[in-house]
Design goal:
The chain is flat. The protein has a two-stranded antiparallel sheet with strand order 1-2. The protein has a domain of about 80 residues: Four Helix Bundle (Hemerythrin (Met), subunit A), CATH 1.20.120. The protein is about 80% helix and about 0% strand.
């Protein structure tokens, strides 16, 4: 009886494998090739920048602006890393001075506040580079992107919550709730 079962299951498995391979090839043949060039969020951003119609002076000013913001960002990260290292060292020391820890916390909070203020000033400086028409286009592009990204994230979170709550059958890690 075991031999008969083995003789039948091998051809069935081989047939199923052939059918799956055929379907994979068929689906791959039906999928259109991606368009040449970039794709995704970077391509959309590059296209939006191209649609703004920036002058060479604006492109140069925007490049300098980005470079300055990058340097500020790196300096902020370095300083925050220094604070984190000091806090780890003090947290590991059972006889650490409480006043010194509180002083580091205050300094870190002050640094974060200055960073946020700097970001607001940078946005105002960046807006000076563009014309009012270009700013309107930028705002329209941002609002369109925000709406898409926000709704997709909410959808995924809703699905995750529904799954965890047992709405989809109630199976969680192999057992029924």
């Amino acid at each position: 009886m075991k031999r008969a079962r083995g003789r039948i299951s091998i051809p069935i498995a081989a047939g199923a494998a052939m059918i799956l391979a055929f379907l994979a090839v068929f689906v791959a043949a039906q999928t259109p090739p991606p368009p040449p060039g970039r794709s995704g969020p970077r391509a959309a951003r590059a296209q939006a920048i191209a649609d703004l119609g920036l002058t060479p002076d604006q492109v140069k000013a925007l490049g300098e602006f980005r470079k300055a913001r990058m340097n500020e960002r790196l300096a902020f990260r370095e300083e925050m890393g220094r604070f984190s290292g000091e806090m780890r060292a003090l947290a590991g020391d059972p006889q650490a001075n409480q006043a010194k820890i509180e002083k580091l916390i205050d300094q870190r909070a002050r640094l974060r506040a200055e960073r946020e203020k700097g970001v607001l000033r940078a946005r105002a400086d960046r807006d000076k580079i563009f014309t009012p028409e270009q700013r309107e286009k930028i705002n329209a592009f941002r609002s369109a992107r925000q709406g898409r990204m926000g709704s997709a994230a909410r959808g995924r979170l809703t699905e995750l919550r529904a799954f965890r709550s047992g709405w989809w059958g109630g199976w969680v890690r192999g057992r029924r709730r």
